[in-house]
Task: structure prediction
Amino acid sequence: EVQLVESGGGLVQPGGSLRLSCAASGFTFGSYDMSWVRQAPGKGPEGVSGISGAGATYYTGSVKGRFTVSRDNAKNTLYLQMNSLKPEDTAVYCCKYRIYWGRGTQVTVSS
Result:
């Protein structure tokens, strides 16, 4: 059974940082692309970042230069380092593997 469990969200002031983690199980983690998707209140899902099994990364334009995606295949864990956070980054962040989504972790950026 595929399981994806996110952690690391919270309330942070604008300009602050958070590091999200996604613990994966039930599949051969290191072999597959993984991604982060977020959903803000009243909006549809937005792909934020992704990383291939080989480590190639991509980012949506609004987070380039601020967010860094990484993975530790030995720990079956996906990460998202988020710096210089803005109020518009407020959303539930979920990790995604193929059709599987975690339940997400809330990130709120507010003063």
About this structure: The chain is about 0% helix and 50% strand. The mean pLDDT is 97. The longest strand covers residues 18-25.
